């Protein structure tokens, strides 16, 4: 099983070195909990289409404006090998598709955060990707046509950017 | 217990009690949930009494007769919940309406919680929640309802003392997509910012690495409009951290898409953006290309055309081409 974490792509690109402490430390910044968070959010994914759908839904329902959505996908086993718990966690108000895949990693300490970052960087076939902001508009419109209920969860500027009258190139 | 009859006056005269942020948020969240869907003037129960609950209404405060927009159910109280849009409330004959929204509802709820805690310091969050809800259903009670409509334009707060600790608390509400209510409260604080808060926010990003916090902060700076431009350019001129640079440039780019679409005047801002168009980080270069939407079209086209000749990154080049296309198609 693989999980997706929203990150800054440059910190996880395939040329990054798991043995370089500076690069590991930079990558570990993306595994830091946000204010008030108790667990690190990841989304369980199967295959490329699901990866893209999770990424696009996240961009439209968790962010207010179009920005490149960067992610790294890595094996869930890495988390368990470090003795961390990873469990489904429902989030009130979250888009149902995302909610069904949302997991939280608990037990992270400063040291384990670095070790997890090094473990992920050590996975050669990890997937690091980016949905460009300009693509989010078109992808979002397609998703809204397929799942009209998604509109109820759009955040910030997205309802107007993805309104039926909006240009299909308004995502960027 | 005597509950508030006039929230503002009561709060002003009440002694200060420290309520941790988390407690404020828990109470506010519980009340929001409990009263979701209620409209101003809705009554909770059918029984009414004749005791006047409150002096809160426009007539009392301004000396003017209450108009049609008056939303207070002031005569039939008893078991009623009195909802009031704070935006309708005037402090004096010629004053502007006080701002409505959760940022004002929070201190009201906090004030109630403060009174409870000052009388019974050992109460737990759940006990306070229950007490508030029970009191709401049995006595005279004033709830300030948050507006439902989107806030299209930021409004500046009346002159006040800038408090870094308050700014830091509200900064910590950014990026919380798992707790959107908290994020909305923080956002409301920032959208009412003055110049000091904006400058603080821009500088606070120097040490920030969390992608969602950076996104939210940049979105707020963009929504604040031209107020943000000066502090952002000043910070960009001081060799900011890479993540901070990208966030600030994104804010300018989004601002360039806004209806307001302010223009950066003067050479200094233009040169700062032109310099960042040559940054080693491709994300920074791409964001700088978009931030040039705030320059006069001829100046932006000048810099972008020059960069197009040497730009090695395909994605950045694509964005430069797109930006140049805006000018040739008249969008810029």
Characterize the structure shown.
The complex is a heterodimer of chains A (172) and B (332). Chain A is globular and about 50 Å long. In chain A, strands 4-5-2-1-3-6 form a 6-stranded antiparallel beta sheet. Chain A is built from 7 helices and 6 strands; from the N terminus they run E-H-E-H-E-H-E-H-E-H-E-H-H. With 332 residues, chain B is mainly alpha-helical. Chain B is elongated, with a radius of gyration of 24 Å. Chain B starts with 6 loop residues before the first helix and ends with a helix. The N terminus of chain B is likely disordered. At the A-B interface, loops of A face helix 9 and helix 11 of B.
Note the topology.
The complex is a heterodimer of chains A (172) and B (332).
Chain A: E1 2-7, H1 21-28, E2 40-45, H2 47-61, E3 69-75, H3 77-81, E4 85-88, H4 96-101, E5 102-106, H5 110-121, E6 127-131, H6 133-146, H7 158-161
Antiparallel strand pairs in A: 1-2, 1-3, 2-5, 3-6, 4-5
Helix pairs in contact in A: 1-5, 2-6
Chain B: H1 7-13, H2 21-34, H3 58-62, E1 81-85, H4 102-119, H5 125-138, E2 141-145, H6 164-171, H7 180-191, H8 195-204, H9 211-223, H10 229-236, H11 242-255, H12 267-276, H13 282-291, H14 297-308, H15 314-328
Parallel strand pairs in B: 1-2
Task: Give a short overview.
The complex is a heterodimer of chains A (172) and B (332). Chain A has 172 residues and is α+β, with helices and mostly antiparallel strands. Chain A is 37% helix and 19% strand.
Identify the overall geometry of chain A.
Answer: globular
Tell me, rounded to a whole number, the average pLDDT of chain A. 94
Total beta-strand segments of chain A:
6
Question: For the largest interface in this structure, which chains are involved and how many residues does each contribute?
Answer: A-B, 27 and 28 residues
**Helix/strand/pairing class of chain B, anyone?**
mainly alpha
Helix content percent band of chain B:
40-55%
Strand order of the largest sheet of chain B: 1-2
How big is the Rg of chain A? 16 Å
Helical residue percent band of chain A: 25-40%
Number of helices of chain B: 15
Q: What is the number of helices of chain A? A: 7
